[in-house]
Amino acid sequence: MLKLKINHHLVECGTDEAGRGCLAGPVTAAAVILPDNFSHPFLNDSKQLSEVKRLELKQIIEKEALCYAYTHVMMREIDEINILNASILAMHRSIEKLTQQPEFIAIDGNRFKPYGKTPFECVIKGDGKFLHIAAASILAKTERDAFMARIHEKHPEYNWRKNKGYPTKEHRAAIRELGATPYHRKSFKLLPEQLKLNLKIK
Fold first, then answer.
1. 45 annotated as belonging to a binding site for a ligand
2. What is the C-alpha separation between 176 and 59, in angstroms, rounded?
3. Cβ(139)–Cβ(32) under 8 Å?
4. pLDDT tier at 199 (50, 70, 90 boundaries)?
5. How far apart are CA 136 and CA 12, in angstroms?
6. For the whole model, what pTM was predicted?
7. 12 marked as binding residue
8. How confident is the model over 71-100, as a mean pLDDT?
9. Where are the domains of the chain?
10. Does domain 12-152 fall into CATH 3.30.420.10?
11. Is there a binding annotation on residue 143?
């Protein structure tokens, strides 16, 4: 079972992002502060859970968390500041939205920038170690998936409802045939023959 948090005596939020490796759509982060008596036997890294389980846990987290927030950083901003900076920015913006500001921040991964003067710790594979990071990973993943399902309706030929914007063979074949949309990240290598790609704006 995952641990609740790193510092038991502090108000601590967990934060994580989803969508860093995608060719299309935003990078999405979430921040969550859980109550000190929170526990759940199935809460884990969102990548280890089925979509049905993630959606079930999303409802539980939103009901029981002391506070939570999520943020999409869109494609143009990703292209301007790069995906790492956009991921950290999404985390910062999510923390800013929390109705209670944390005394400590736990981050999934190994890269972060200081959020004011709040102490923090990066935890490799933290979404499989701490409940609040796992909760943030689930909110980030489910909110981003919902966004991709919405834009799928505008461009169903790319099948974002299924591939979520990741570089699958199907997704790249659609880019090769139809070009890129405003939802594609222009700074990413959309195709191996990137320089030959006709970037259509739809």
1. no
2. 38
3. yes
4. low
5. 12
6. 0.92
7. no
8. 98
9. 12-152, 156-196
10. yes
11. no
